[in-house]
Amino acid sequence: MSDTLTHLDESGRATMVDVGQKAVTERVAVARGAVTMQPETLRLIIEGNLKKGDVLTVAEVAGVMAAKRTSELIPLCHPLLLNQVTVTCTPRPGQNRVEIEARVRVSGKTGVEMEALTAVTVAGLTIYDMAKAVDRTMRLTDVRLVRKEGGRSGTFQAEE
Questions:
Q1: Residues involved in catalysis
Q2: Residues with Cβ < 8 Å from 100, sequence gap 6 or more?
Q3: What pTM, to 2 d.p., does this model score?
């Protein structure tokens, strides 16, 4: 782990990292999270019986859209031309949750960790929004980076 923060200049002020001299490489990031809920809420989502429609598909699309707009949400993120974003929402009835995974890929000079984390978070918030009329106890949990590849720092794999 590095002992310096990359978004601070010599005087400690926030700054955008200069990636001008970095090489373009293939970079991938995978993030995961979950939305926990009441069993009845998950049943309604799985059966497609919520008034707002197909919760899981809408959440997946929202996650893709969010990844593409990450630089508008996180002040010091670079705008990136993403190669691919996939978001998968998987119901886990035995655990009363929907697990969310985002995989983001780019050929660029900076990584896509923030894009993957943003995709997971917005997908989870979308699930909450679409089901809140029946369950306000839902919780967005466990949002984390699980893998990143490429760039100067190489591969990171989180211990699960």
A1: 129
A2: 32, 33, 34, 35, 59, 63, 87, 88, 89, 90, 120, 123, 124, 127
A3: 0.90
